[in-house]
Amino acid sequence: MTLRDIRVLFRQELSNDYTHSEIDNLLKITMDKECGKVFNSYELNTDIEIDKVDFQKIQKTLSLLKTKMPYQYIFGEADFYGLSFIVNEHTLIPRPETEELVELSIGKIKEKFGKRKFSVLDIGTGSGVISIIIKKHFPDADIIAVDISQQALAVARENALRHNTEIEFCEVDVLSENLNDNFDVIISNPPYIGLKEEKELSEIVRRYEPRHALFPLSEDDLIFYKRIALLAHNCLNDNGAILLEINQKWGKETCALFDGFAKSILIKDLSGNDRFVVVEK
User: Fold this and answer.
1) Residues 52, 56, 59, 61: is their CA dihedral positive or negative?
2) How confident is the model at residue 217 (pLDDT cuts 50, 70, 90)?
3) Is the pLDDT of residue 43 over 90?
4) Does the reported pTM lie above 0.70?
5) Nearest CA to 276 among 214, 190, 205?
6) Neighbouring-strand partners of residue 240
7) For residue 219, how far is the Cα from the chain centroid?
8) I need a surface site. Which of 67, 98, 108, 129 has the fewest CB within 10 A?
9) Contact partners, residue 63, CB within 8 Å, separation at least 6
10) pLDDT tens digit sequence for 163-174
11) CB 128: neighbour CB atoms within 10 A?
C-alpha cells in the first residue's frame, strides 16, 4: 500500500464530512501520531510504501474518523498555545478563541502587575490549559483552578505534571459555593452556549464534547457571568482584573453585568465577534 493509495482511501471514506484539504491534514496527523512519520502535502501523492503494521494502525484511526470523532479525542491530545495537552471526553477541545483569551490575560497581567507577585483564580478550568499557560509565563503566580468535574480535574492535573507547573486544582461548584480566598486576577471560559443554540452546533461537537462544559444547563444563558460578577465583588482584590470569554450573542449584556466595577470593556475576537469582557476593579 502506497501513501497515494491511502490518501485516495481517506478521501473516499471521509469526503461526506470533510473537504479535501481537511482530509489531507487528518492523514498527515494520523501518519505523525500513529506511525511517527511526518509528510508534507506533496508527499501524500507519492508512491512511498507504507508497511502492513502502520497500515493497520491507519485503518483503525480511519474507522474512528468515520464516526466523526474529533482527532484530538482519538489521539488524546490537542495543541494549544504552542504546547500539547491531554484531552478526553471529559474536557473540551481548546479553541483558538481561548488562545486569544490567554493572550489578553498575559497582556493585562503584565500591564497591572509588572514583576510583582499576584494570584489567579481560573473558573471552569477543564483540561487546565489556561492556568498552565499563565503559570508558564508567570512562574511565581499563585494559581487556583476550579471545576465541577472530577474527571476534568484529573486531566488538568496530568497536564500540569506534563508541563511541570505547580497549580492548585479544586472541585468547586461556583454556582452554589462561595470562595474563601482573594485573588488579583479571575479568568474564566465558562459554559456559555445557550440550550436553544444547540441545533446550531456541529454534530461532532454535540455528539462528543461534554455537555456540562458547553451549556450552562439553565434557562439563563448568563448565569455563570452573573455569579462571577457577584463573587468578584467579594474575592477580587482592589486593582484586580477579570478576563472572560463570552457568547458573541450576549456581548453588551454580559459587559453590563460588570457596570459596578471601575471599568468593563467588550473586545472582539480575530473574526470580528464580541468574544471577551475585560473588567478592572
Assistant:
1) negative
2) confident
3) no
4) yes
5) 190
6) none
7) 24
8) 67
9) none
10) 999 999 999 999
11) 29
Q: How many residues does the chain have?
A: 281
**How large is the greatest C-alpha to C-alpha distance in the chain, in angstroms?**
65
pLDDT over 90 at 272, yes or no: yes
Ramachandran quadrant class, 34 (left: phi over 0; alpha: psi -120 to 50; beta: rest): alpha
- Backbone dihedral angles phi then psi of residue 198, each to the nearest 5 degrees: -55, -40
User: 115, exposed or middle or buried, with CB in 10 Å at 0-12, 13-18, 19+?
Assistant: exposed
Distance of CA 36 to the CA centre of its chain: 26
Mean pLDDT of 257-274: 96
State which amino acid sits at residue 89. Answer: E
With beta carbons less than 8 A apart as the criterion, state whether 258 and 264 touch: yes
* CA atoms within a 13 Å half-sphere pointing along the CA-CB vector of 74: 21
Q: Locate 7 and state its grid cell.
A: 490518501
Residues 6+ apart with CB under 8 A from 109: 118, 134, 137, 138, 185, 241
Distant-in-sequence, close-in-space partners of 155: CB < 8 Å, separation ≥ 6: 86, 87, 88, 90, 91, 126, 127, 128
Considering just the CA atoms, what is the radius of gyration of the chain in Å?
Answer: 21
